[in-house]
Amino acid sequence: MIKQLTLTVLAASVLSACSMAPKYTRPDVPVAENYETSSANASNAQRASDMGWRALFNDQRLQALISTALVNNRDLRVAALRIEEARSLYNIQSADLLPNLNGVATGARARTPASLTTSNSSVVTSNYQVGLSLASFELDFFGRVRSLNDAALATYLSTEEAQRSAHITLVSEVAKAYLAERAFAEQQELAQQTYESRAAAYNLSKQRFEVGASSALDLRQDEALTQNAKVAELTLRRQRAQAMNALTLLVGQPLTDLPPAQPLSAQTIRTDLFIGMPSDLLEQRPDIRSAEQTLLAANANIGAARAAFFPRISLTAGVGTASNELSGLFESGSRAWSFAPQLVLPIFEGGRNIANLNLTEVRKNIAVASYEKSIQVAFREVADALVARDLLDEQIEAQRLATVAQEERLKLADQRFQNGISSSLDVLDAQRELFSAQLTLVQARLLRLTNAVDLYRSLGGGLQETTVATAPAK
To answer: What was the pLDDT predicted at 4?
Structure first.
């Protein structure tokens, strides 16, 4: 009996190799074949996905922050736990591909009263059984179980890719939050210097007013300029503190025992990365790979929905020994077995199977649209970063020259005021314009650095801690 049962299960496994899921074809890439940018790849350019984030960021404090965040960030921890959840669900589903064998031992005693027996005397019966049982094993002739297993596997792989995407995003977000805090620190320092300078000018103006050397209008203008500088300094102090709070949340623990921070002007981030073609993003970006695995899962679910229209055949069997005496379980002639195949053919389901098939097809269409959208978003992120990379250096240089010009303007205005050629209004206006130009220059430098981080992330960089040794990209 065991041999016959084993052969039956093996034959069922062979016959159940077919699947009713549609043949998967990867959708066409809904973006241009090339990026519209004037920049070209350097001869020694490296793929972002192969470059470790330690090689990209030279600030030791930033490296320590990223390393700590990868351990303590709660969002990344949840993403890792989602992988364990999906793996467990896949293991549960894959168990249906194999028969479930159980060891069974039962014992029963029953007394039948005399009024219910033909012999007019009470009867006590005993029944003892020991053996193996096969509980309702489905013969997957139409691939229903196999399709569900494929869907569970694709869901698990999608979750794994989603965790990689969260890893990459966390690296870039920590870097951008740190750079923003450094920019606020530099702007706050500029605001503090400006406030101190204007406070000194205001005190001098007050003394001049007290001796009648200047008007009340000049005094109030100096006072207003001083208070505006104080407002700017307080605003930047608040923004810096909030940036620190955001960075602490990303890191997942208080920011203590860290290397000293470098100023924003000392930060350098490589931008000479290998860009490649838009189609390369399909392999470089884990969020796109996650969306494709979701699409594969939806495609497999269609196979399970189609198989529901066909008969389901299951086997229930058992083999062992049975006796009316406990001592006779393993005696000669006590062998017992059972074999109960079952066929269930859907006849009337009230439209349930048709609605379920329509549902799976709609979900596949949604997955296709989501997959295509993920490609379009990735393409735009890379294209935006490339455009900014080509123009930000020129913008910073222009802003630097504008700041230098404002410094010279302030010197000339102050000289003219000291010589009585022009009024203090020219000096005050030059001070305002210089302070604004200095803040804008810091903001432009921050934009260049954050754009470099965005380019690295959008090309799939950030998953590796150290650079992977590979041949130069071509």
So the answer is: 53
Helix runs in 16-139, H state only? 53-56, 60-72, 74-94
Strands 101-112 and 123-139: antiparallel
Comparing CA positions, the residue from 244, 245, 239, 246 lying closest to residue 261 is: 244
Q: How many CA atoms lie within 13 A of 62 on its CB side?
A: 29
CA atoms within 13 A on the CB side of 64: 14
Of 146, 141, 150, nearest to 311 by C-alpha is 141
Which residues, in sequence order, are bridge partners of residue 104? 131
Computed from CA positions of residues 333, 334, 335, 336, in that sequence, does the dihedral angle turn out positive or negative?
A: positive
Question: Is the pTM for the entire model greater than 0.70?
Answer: yes
Domain ranges (residues) in the chain: 16-99+140-311+355-458
Helix runs in 211-284, H state only: 216-251, 281-284
* Cα dist from 343 to 96, 138, 140, whole Å: 17, 10, 12
| pLDDT at 1 (0 to 100) | 46
Q: Which helix (H) or strand (E) holds 409?
A: helix 352-418
Q: For residues 280 and 49, is the Cβ–Cβ distance under 8 A?
A: no
The region, left, alpha or beta by phi > 0 then psi within -120 to 50, assigned to residue 371 is alpha
pLDDT of residue 473: 53
Backbone angles phi, psi at 124, to 5 degrees: -110, 120
| pLDDT for res 172 | 95
User: Whole-angstrom Cα distance, residue 202 to residue 423?
Assistant: 15
DSSP secondary structure of 115-158: GGSTTSS-EEEEEEEEEEEEEEEEE-TTSHHHHHHHHHHHHHHH
Alpha carbons 428 and 76: distance in angstroms, whole number: 51
Query: What stretch of H or E contains 306?
Result: helix 286-307
Q: How many distinct helices (H) and strands (E) make up the chain?
A: 10, 6
End-to-end alpha carbon distance in the chain: 64
Q: In which residue ranges of the chain is pLDDT below 70?
A: 1-17, 38-44, 469-474
Residues in the chain, total: 474
Which CATH number applies to 16-99+140-311+355-458: 3.90.226.10, 1.10.3210.10, 1.20.1600.10, 2.30.40.10?
A: 1.20.1600.10
Main-chain dihedrals φ then ψ at residue 308, nearest 5 degrees: -65, -15
Structure tokens at 390: 């080509």
Q: Report the distance separating Cα 416 and Cα 419, nearest Å.
A: 5
Residues 6+ apart with CB under 8 A from 78: none
With contact defined as beta carbons under 8 Å apart, do 334 and 322 qualify? yes
Burial class (CB in 10 A: 0-12, 13-18, 19+), 453: buried
